[in-house]
């Protein structure tokens, strides 16, 4: 907030300094205290400059990030801020770096050594968006080759209060009786799954729960993708063809999602 017109428009006095809150993650504890538009003037009692720095060694200043990164996860951070011209104080617990991201930042090589999680339903193969997934599908230059909508979710997708914690993608459509006519629906690009039967999909585990919760009276599974493409699968036909499809494509199970969500094929 180094521009004096901006500071004056926000009602700051000449001797005041601080930073403007532009965004607060919904799922972090800071959301309980701060909101967009607040002006933070002090952190743990230390004055914050208009450039977002705090005193360091004698005659030196350092980025405000130092106040956060020098603490541990779950440590408390105190803030003094102004909202609508009124001075307020509060504190909140720090979350892990990047906890709010839909696509978590991990050691890519570590993830490559793990067995990828997936869910197969009626010939539709769903996976979680991750860097290893992008590298596998689009190569080493995935940031240039992958669709913009996937890159956008990778860099800017955030968890929500409603429970969305992963980006579930339709990775592939396998040849099956239930997918006839859909094989070329998405070409070679993965598509983001948004809804199943009108209900938002929050994660791969959530998708499994939604499928398992479908009653016998529900004839169709309606999958809606991010470009509003609708894929409809006959639920009973998908169940009847399940074992044949696993054998045809040499897949050991219809799903691999942690320990409790695995359904193996019959011998």
Automatic annotation (TrEMBL):
Full protein name: Protease Do-like PDZ domain-containing protein
Annotated InterPro entries: DEGP_PDZ, DEGP_PDZ_sf, PDZ_sf
**High-level lineage:** Eukaryota, Rhodophyta, Florideophyceae, Rhodymeniophycidae, Gigartinales
Q: Which residues form the Protease Do-like PDZ domain?
A: 109-256
Q: Which superkingdom?
A: Eukaryota
Organism for this UniProt entry: Chondrus crispus (Carrageen Irish moss)
What SUPFAM superfamilies does UniProt report for this protein, alphabetically? Answer: PDZ domain-like
Keywords for this protein? Hydrolase, Protease, Serine protease
Q: Which GO terms describe its biological process?
A: proteolysis
């Amino acid at each position: 907030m180094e521009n004096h017109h901006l500071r004056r428009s926000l009602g700051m006095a000449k001797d005041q300094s601080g930073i403007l809150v532009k965004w607060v993650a919904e799922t972090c504890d800071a959301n309980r205290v701060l909101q967009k538009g607040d002006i933070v003037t002090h952190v743990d009692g230390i004055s914050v400059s208009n450039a977002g720095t705090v005193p360091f060694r004698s005659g030196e200043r350092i980025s405000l990030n130092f106040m956060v990164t020098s603490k541990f996860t779950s440590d408390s951070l105190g803030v003094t801020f102004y909202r609508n011209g009124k001075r307020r104080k509060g504190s909140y617990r720090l979350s892990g770096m990047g906890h709010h991201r839909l696509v978590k930042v991990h050691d890519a090589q570590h993830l490559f050594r793990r067995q990828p999680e997936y869910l197969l339903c009626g010939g539709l193969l769903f996976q979680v968006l991750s860097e290893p997934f992008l590298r596998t599908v689009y190569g080493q230059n995935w940031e240039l080759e992958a669709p913009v909508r996937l890159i956008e979710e990778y860099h800017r997708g955030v968890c929500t209060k409603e429970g969305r914690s992963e980006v579930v993608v339709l990775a592939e459509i396998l040849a099956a009786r239930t997918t006839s006519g859909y094989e070329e629906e998405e070409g070679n690009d993965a598509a983001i799954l948004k809804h199943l039967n009108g209900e938002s999909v929050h994660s791969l585990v959530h998708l499994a729960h939604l499928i398992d919760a479908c009653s016998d009276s529900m004839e169709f599974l309606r999958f809606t993708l991010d470009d509003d493409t609708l894929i409809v699968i006959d639920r009973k036909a998908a169940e009847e063809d399940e074992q044949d499809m696993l054998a045809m494509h040499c897949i050991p199970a219809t799903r691999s999602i942690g320990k409790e969500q695995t359904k193996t094929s019959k011998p």
